[in-house]
Amino acid sequence: MPWRVYWFGDADPETGRQQKYVKSFRHSREAREFQTNKQADLNRGEARDRPEDVMLGRLLDEFWEARVANLSYVSREGYKNTMEQLRECFGEARPLSRIDRRHAETFMATRKRRDGRSGDLSSWSRARHLMHCRAIFGAAVEWGYLAQNPYAPSKSRGGSPLRIQPKSRPWQHIIPDEFAWFLAEVPTARRRAAYWLMYGCGLRAGEVYNLTIDKIDLENRKVFIENREATDDVPSFTVKGDRQSHESKERTVPIPGAAIHDLTEAVKGAFKAGGFVALTPERYAAVRRNWGLCRAGRGWAGHSHRPWQNRDMMNNVLRDTKRYMRMARIDVTAPLTLHTFR
């Protein structure tokens, strides 16, 4: 016979009646623990009545409007993927009260690759799904739709799908001597200046290739990373994750003295590239052409239409970087990306 815990909701202001609630447990220990916790919640003044039974589709729509719509394109695509899979798994009309811990674990355990390639879904991708689900259902708790987040971190020591640690990967570290060897193989001051801005100033590649000469103060050795509004000729630039962390805000960064020579030469040549320090005149022309197609709602450079991203200013930069690394005879022992230079 199950153990039951009863409690009453708040009195209806019109009828004076109180809704009676009950929760059943298989073991007396679980019932007593719930009773103790419930009484503590009521003593703190928390709501006596159960949260409104909201459907999953409504939660996802409200979460998108409130917390996703203003994120970057990449972040929106990540949330969109997770939300589509939640809808497929549970259905739009599933009440949130009918998504518990067991359902959350089942959802996480059954995620598969969707890119057509063989193999299991990576731990990184699983962790992203879990992060999104925790944020979505955490908002449901904040908004009073749920009492608990079914995707909250697991306290169990077992192999719960809610206990995911993305696998760390080795990182390529470039020491100053190697950077000097690397620069010796880079043929142009413009490209050397771009690497200096990443290695010496810590700028992201997208920030470097969106940088214009009016944001560089050579006399005081400073570079200003600021958002830029779009025009008919050039796309907008948005500092990654703006207003989300200290690193991501608009900022002023000092320029190391060793970078001044190459940066000065790059600034001189930037007048032929619309003022963009890291772009060639040819690449600047391609950017203008691609931006025109993007504004017209058409695809460009082999892409289907999508919002413009900071990295769309670049072309084959990583390919050239790997070639310079080979020419400099630098031993690459880990995956090499442009982020390596930061």
Automatic annotation (TrEMBL):
<dbReference type="GO" id="GO:0003677">
    <property type="term" value="F:DNA binding"/>
</dbReference>
<dbReference type="Pfam" id="PF00589">
    <property type="entry name" value="Phage_integrase"/>
</dbReference>
<dbReference type="InterPro" id="IPR044068">
    <property type="entry name" value="CB"/>
</dbReference>
<protein>
    <recommendedName>
        <fullName>Tyr recombinase domain-containing protein</fullName>
    </recommendedName>
</protein>
<dbReference type="InterPro" id="IPR010998">
    <property type="entry name" value="Integrase_recombinase_N"/>
</dbReference>
<dbReference type="GO" id="GO:0015074">
    <property type="term" value="P:DNA integration"/>
</dbReference>
<dbReference type="InterPro" id="IPR002104">
    <property type="entry name" value="Integrase_catalytic"/>
</dbReference>
<keyword id="KW-0238">DNA-binding</keyword>
<dbReference type="InterPro" id="IPR050090">
    <property type="entry name" value="Tyrosine_recombinase_XerCD"/>
</dbReference>
<feature type="domain" description="Core-binding (CB)">
    <location>
        <begin position="54"/>
        <end position="141"/>
    </location>
</feature>
<dbReference type="InterPro" id="IPR011010">
    <property type="entry name" value="DNA_brk_join_enz"/>
</dbReference>
<feature type="domain" description="Tyr recombinase">
    <location>
        <begin position="169"/>
        <end position="342"/>
    </location>
</feature>
<keyword id="KW-0233">DNA recombination</keyword>
<dbReference type="GO" id="GO:0006310">
    <property type="term" value="P:DNA recombination"/>
</dbReference>
<dbReference type="InterPro" id="IPR013762">
    <property type="entry name" value="Integrase-like_cat_sf"/>
</dbReference>
